[in-house]
Amino acid sequence: MSPDYQAAALLTFESLVQSTSSSPGGFNWTLWQNVTTNGVWGKGPGAAPKLEDNMNRVDPFTIVDSSNNQVSIKVFGDVSRIVNDVLKNGAQLAIVARTNKALSDRALYYFNTINPADGKEWSIIHLVKYDEVVDEPKTNSFRRIIGWSQSDPLDMLHFDDEAFNNCVRIETAVAFKMCLNQQGLTWDVYQEGISHWLRVRKLTIPSNPTVPPERRIIGYSGLNRTWIDRINIVREGIVDTTGPYRWGYCFYITDDVGVSKFYSDWERGAGKESYVNAVWVRDYALWASLNKIWIPENSGELPQMSNMNWTAEATGQNQEARDRTIESKWGVKTPYVMFSRHYSLPNMPLPPNQRFTEMMVYTQVHRELIDLVSLTDDETAKLVATNRTPVPFHHQIREWNITLSPEARAEEPVFFNASV
């Protein structure tokens, strides 16, 4: 394991045990699988009053409901090894789930691992530092853990089997790794999660650098006050279901001040305080080194998100699938910055059918690197009149380490032939 891992704060896992037929999330496929006929514990003949007292461990990997042997959970085979490795590398362990806490704790009591501190077998529950099992959005649990532990969100990695729980990454910047296809938390998934996490942690700007990093404007964005404050002050992302986010919940930036003004005016028309903002990066060298991908606007392999019409799970699945496709097809790993072209909208200050360019910056990146400086209306008007595109994105392909997909180039060869 990389020595960088030892500087980590904590890893978190979902540990859902279904206690009622309407438990949030349904079955769990992270630490264990629920094998049930009716989805509930302690409902058979002679059931004990306390649900957890109906849990009976029949072997090191399996717990059966003593009142109904058709109800059981089976821990995945690599979990004990993974928990041991987490602790061996100096990280802390947390459980975050929306389920019955007594059932979750009892299951973790029955499942064991070797504690590297003394080489003896311990119940996993006794090795958990933060046991956040509560019927609330997981983002609430993570904010509490961040406060208690005084951890940076980038020092945290969460494993989960449900895509809609990637809200913990979108809102709080905690790293997120999904367990796919009901295979649970395998050693390979764990290693992939750690690799992703270590890349995320490289986003951090040193607190006392020998040479102050260079700040630079990289684009413009028309935003309302809520967004501005969330990026500059709260430093979290927004999951906004009231508007379309075709390439995922993220911060959208353009290189055209006129387009930014169009969006700012749109917000003002809805009665919101809104401005055109210059988007600054706090460390230009770090920014330039980040992974970036320029995708085609129209691709069957990258279906656009329809968050206003989809369920939270379908929306989350779309975001996770996009990350996997971008890595498998173009070799660009998360965390990345994404670019795409966008056809003009009605009343936009562009000729009909002309495209503009948008840049998508996801929470972990904008939390660490981005500051917004709102422009006055006079400053905006002057830029629109004299220099609408001070930093054309397609002229930064080499300097910004942008991977230009062949499919994007094929959509507009003349436009990209002019790139530098």
Question: What does this entry look like structurally?
Answer:
With 420 residues, this protein is of the alpha/beta class. Helices cover 31% and strands 24% of the residues. It has helices spanning 79-88, 101-110, 138-149, 167-172, 187-201, 225-234, 257-269, 284-289, 312-330, 363-369, 377-386, 406-411, 413-417, and strands at residues 10-13, 32-35, 55-59, 62-65, 68-75, 92-97, 112-115, 120-123, 130-133, 156-160, 175-178, 216-224, 251-254, 274-281, 291-294, 336-343, 355-361, 370-374, 402-404. Strands 9-6-1-10-11 form a five-stranded parallel beta sheet, with helices on both faces. A five-stranded mixed beta sheet has the order 13-17-16-15-19. A hairpin with a 4-residue loop joins strand 7 and strand 8. The longest helix is centred in the C-terminal third of the chain and has 19 residues, at 312-330. The chain is elongated and about 80 Å long. The chain starts with 9 loop residues before the first strand and ends with a helix. Mean pLDDT is 89; it is low at 16-27.
Count of helical regions:
13
User: Which geometry do the CA atoms define?
Assistant: elongated
Helix content: 25-40%
> Tell me about the biggest sheet?
5 strands, parallel
Amount of beta strand: 15-25%
Strand order of the largest sheet: 9-6-1-10-11
Radius of gyration: 24 Å
- Overall mean pLDDT: 89
Detail the poorly predicted runs: 16-27
Using DSSP, what is the number of strands?
19
**Span between termini:** 40 Å
- By secondary-structure content and strand pairing, the structural class works out as alpha/beta
